[in-house]
Amino acid sequence: MRLNKTSIGHSLLAAALLSGCNEVTVEPVTTGATVCQEYYEACVDSVLTEPFAASATGLTVTCAGEGCHNVDNGAGGTFKLFPRAAGGSLEMTANFISAKAFVNVGDPAMSKILLEPLAGSPSIVGSHSGGDIFADPNDHHYQELYYWISNPQASTTESCPQLDHFPNDASRRCLADPVP
């Protein structure tokens, strides 16, 4: 079979047109809303870095433990935490940025940071090697994370909303704060 310039040109044109059929442009939906770093430091970081009894198992766990999401020697994928990060430090900011990467302010219940450790929840990617941590969405650690995600600030230039579980009790703000 002999190809001439016209048939080659038509073939190239057809290939170019057909190759464009599978191209889909996905535009991210940007609301400008973001989670609040100040509330993260006050109430959320301790949920992720301090040991607590997992409601799903009763075992004492911490996300920032060795072999889990510890920045030095954790095996927990890209979610990394500095244990014992001081408020306002670069380590605390790194913890916030790491946690923020796994939230969905548009649909808080679909946030990976909530779904992966939730008992009975299908894993988004593989399985949560740390096992089930939250027995259900009523777990107060789950609720602290959910509250943070579901009350975002309008944009990074806006101030954080006044997040407070106990607006009528000046001695308490977070769910984990002790009752005076």
Give me the secondary-structure topology.
Blueprint: H1 5-19, H2 37-49, E1 52-53, E2 60-61, H3 90-100, H4 112-115, H5 140-150
Antiparallel strand pairs: 1-2
Secondary structure category = mainly alpha
Q: What is the strand content?
A: under 5%
Order of helices and strands: HHEEHHH
Query: What radius of gyration results from the CA coordinates?
Result: 23 Å
Helical residue percent band:
25-40%
pLDDT below 50 for ≥5 consecutive residues: which ranges?
5-9, 11-24
Tally of separate helices: 5
Mean pLDDT: 80
Number of strands: 2
What form results from the Cα inertia axes? globular
Q: Largest sheet, described in full?
A: 2 strands, antiparallel
Q: Which sequence of strands runs across the widest sheet? A: 1-2
Q: How far from one another are the termini?
A: 90 Å
At a glance:
With 180 residues, the protein is mainly α. The chain has a domain at 31-150.
List keywords for this structure.
180 residues, mainly alpha, two-stranded antiparallel sheet
Could you characterize the architecture of this molecule?
This protein has 180 residues and is mainly α. The protein has a domain at 31-150. It contains 5 helices and 2 strands. The protein has helices at 5-19, 37-49, 90-100, 112-115, 140-150, and strands spanning 52-53, 60-61. The protein has a two-stranded antiparallel sheet with strand order 1-2. The longest helix is centred in the N-terminal third of the chain and has 15 residues, at 5-19. The termini are far apart.
